[in-house]
């Protein structure tokens, strides 16, 4: 029996532009800016030869049938079948450290960590970019995300300069002091699929996003990214009253570098670590039943453990 573990960080987007004009799904994606967190998804894979391909998925110790995980595993198994002329039984266990449908790139993290772990367990010999391309294809096919995977491949505070999967898109990063952390909160869901399939919403996003990407490339620092994220939020009009109220309260208490997570019923605030507990308490008071965490920035990206 072969065994492997992989981690993929959560990814928060501050602002973006949908880029889906290409026919090749590997060239489809988004441009924009965001940040990777040290929380995400850990995927463990156990693989053994079998008479027929079989996939068992457990999420937080419970049997689940996560579509992006299953689709990724099926693609990886197909590669293994062709390479070795063997069938395999896979047991996939995922530890979810982030909420779903909340703008934390959970689907990308699930797909990417699954692909990395299977690649190692079955010794498929795919490069990190090739593995990332499979995860990106799953995201595009399921309308669950466009730019998370390439961002999660790199880590840090990133700017997606050119859209596409790893190996096709281009990502640059914004230098950030090591003592900066991300305080995030989420209470409720906003499905990416529902927004990306709405032509009117997509048009607003693209109109606002294109201009802001050019601005951050001219002046790439974290405070500027957060300012542009707030500007984007106001222009695309996707923020709920709860999100607006939380951000106003943070601003009144001196936390200017805060915005809405795209796309989710969620907020994030970037601050020096010595002020993080205060920001946490403010968000908690506005989202008492929500997911509230103080996270470090993940600078390594998706990787084996």
Radius of gyration: 19 Å
In the CATH classification, which architecture of the largest domain applies?
2-Layer Sandwich
CATH topology of the largest domain: Ribosomal Protein S5, domain 2
**Biggest sheet descriptor:** 8 strands, mixed
Give the uncertain stretches in residue-range form.
Answer: none
- Overall structural class, as computed from helix and strand content, comes to alpha+beta
The separation of the N and C termini measures 18 Å
Q: Which range best describes the helical content: under 10%, 10-25%, 25-40%, 40-55%, 55-70% or over 70%? A: 25-40%
How confident is the prediction overall: mean pLDDT?
A: 95
- The helix/strand order is EEEEHEHHHEEEHHHHEEHEE
Number of domains: 2
Strand percentage lies at 25-35%
Structure explained in plain terms:
With 305 residues, the protein is an alpha+beta fold. It has 9 helices and 12 strands. Strands 1, 2, 3, 4, 5, 6, 7 and 12 form an 8-stranded mixed β-sheet that branches. Helix 1 runs parallel beside helix 2, helix 1 packs across helix 3 and helix 2 packs across helix 3. The radius of gyration is 19 Å and the shape is globular.
């Amino acid at each position: 029996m072969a065994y492997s573990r992989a981690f993929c960080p959560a990814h928060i987007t501050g602002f973006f532009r949908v880029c889906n004009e290409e026919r090749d799904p590997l060239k489809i994606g988004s441009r924009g800016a965001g940040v990777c967190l040290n929380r995400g998804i850990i995927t463990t894979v156990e693989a053994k030869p079998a008479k027929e391909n079989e996939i068992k998925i457990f999420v937080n110790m419970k049997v689940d049938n996560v579509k992006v995980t299953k689709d990724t595993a099926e693609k990886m198994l197909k590669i293994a079948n062709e390479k070795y002329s063997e069938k395999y039984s896979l047991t996939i266990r995922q530890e979810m450290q982030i909420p779903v449908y909340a703008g934390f790139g959970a689907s990308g993290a699930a797909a990417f960590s699954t692909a990395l772990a299977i690649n190692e367990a079955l010794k498929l010999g795919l490069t990190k970019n090739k593995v990332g391309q499979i995860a990106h294809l799953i995201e595009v096919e399921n309308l669950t995300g466009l730019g998370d995977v390439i961002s999660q491949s790199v880590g840090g505070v990133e700017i997606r300069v050119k859209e596409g999967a790893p190996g096709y898109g281009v990502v640059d990063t914004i230098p950030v002091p090591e003592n900066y952390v991300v305080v995030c909160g989420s209470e409720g869901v906003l499905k990416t699929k529902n927004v990306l399939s709405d032509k009117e919403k997509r048009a607003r996003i693209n109109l606002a996003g294109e201009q802001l990407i050019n601005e951050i490339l001219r002046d790439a620092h974290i405070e500027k990214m957060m300012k542009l994220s707030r500007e984007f939020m106001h222009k695309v009009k996707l923020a709920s009253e709860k999100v607006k109220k939380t951000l106003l309260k943070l601003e009144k208490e001196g936390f200017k570098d805060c915005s809405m997570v795209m796309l989710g019923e969620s907020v994030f605030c970037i601050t020096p670590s010595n002020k993080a507990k205060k920001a946490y308490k403010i968000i908690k008071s506005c989202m008492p039943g929500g997911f509230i965490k103080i996270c470090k920035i993940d600078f390594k990206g998706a990787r084996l453990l």
